[in-house]
Amino acid sequence: MVHRFLHTVNVWTATDEELAALLPGQWVSAGEPDATRSNCGRWYGITKGGTKVAAWNGNARRADCGWKAYHQKLHRYAQGD
Predict the structure, then answer these.
(1) Rounded to an integer, what distance in angstroms lies between the CA atom of residue 13 and that of residue 40?
(2) Do 54 and 43 form a contact (C-beta atoms < 8 A)?
(3) Which residue has the higher pLDDT, 76 or 2?
(4) What SS3 string covers the chain?
């Protein structure tokens, strides 16, 4: 089975099943993507407790630990590490 990324997925309109099927790193948005993509981010999954995890662009840019470390931290959190 070949996994493919989709166009940016709106997390507000996607079903839980659609979100569960997304690959880590898939681009997502909160609403329709705006011109600056400030409401977009990368999807990292759903925790065992049901928390939906995405690294939003604005938060990643402002993270004290740096952009890459912020993404890695959220990816590990989504996986339960």
Answers:
(1) 14
(2) yes
(3) 76
(4) CCCCCCCCEECCCCCHHHHHCCCCCCEEECCCCCCCCCCEEEEEEECCCCCEEEEEHHHHHHCCCCHHHHHHHHHHHHHCC
* Contact predicate 39/50, CB 8 Å: no
* Cα–Cα distance, 32 to 51 (Å, whole number): 22
- Give pTM, 2 decimals: 0.84
Average pLDDT over residues 5-18: 91
Amino acid present at 1? M
Residue that has been written with the tokens 């999954």 in this structure: 45
Q: Is the pLDDT of residue 2 over 70?
A: no
Using only C-alpha atoms, what is the Rg of the chain? 12
For residue 68, what are the contacts with CB-CB under 8 A and spacing of at least 6? none
Q: What CA–CA distance (Å, rounded) separates 19 from 34?
A: 21
